[in-house]
Amino acid sequence: MLVTSRELLLDAQRNKYAVGAFNVENMEMVLAVMAAAEETKSPVIMQTTPGTLKFAGIDMYFANIKAAAERASVPVVCHLDHGNSFATAVQAFHAGYTSIMIDGSKLPFPENISLTKSVVDICHAANIPVEAELGRVGGKEDGLDNTATINPFTNPEEAREFVNRTGCDSLAVAIGTAHGIYKGTPQVNFEVLGKIRKIVHIPLVLHGTSGVPDDQVIQCVSMGMCKVNYATDLRIAYTNGVKNYMKDNPNGFDPKKYGAFGIEEVKRYVIDRMRVIGSCGKA
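Now predict its structure.
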């Protein structure tokens, strides 16, 4: 069933687990994430970025997620990840997405507030929740480039003001993680997270989680992270599955056969992540 993210994240906040948010790039990845959610009885968020949407169109990706959700016995959210403009956010809203992120984190603080508030006003009129971002999650991925960030961490006092002035439903915060592939081991700044959690009472979101050690992810969830995003490692898993099939079947040409190997690798990875963030059995 297709639902909004609001009640899922509030339940996660109350019960100290997180809902996994997985970037899906094709039909096979949708099938894999859905199979993992069904097997573990986990609520799940499937999301797409503007960069992904350019490939086949927002209607195509929404149709895949919607069809999977209608077959499912667990709650499914269709989420716009890193909406990069008011127009993109509204396009996703009109397409039927049940959760919208507007990312104004590259803008000056007042402009981020203004952009976020404009999206909140539109979406809340139809009871669609909005995720925003304050501070910059570093790294490069899917057209996103925050490598030049000077002060990447979210300021806790600014976070409180931002939430109060925008009315956003969840907030992605920058605490030391990065998009893409890590060079070395990431180190989450738990001191910053703790300060934010004390004064910001809406659900918090962890971006750039692919490659973050499990113990750090578990601590983030215990400290109030309610939505945890994964993207890069799903791409790697799917690609590895396809490569493994082609290595053993160099003359293979049937997309269904090598796609099935990609599905299995993604499913295995997503189940493992759902166990780490504690969402199993919470559907």
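The longest strand covers residues 76-83.
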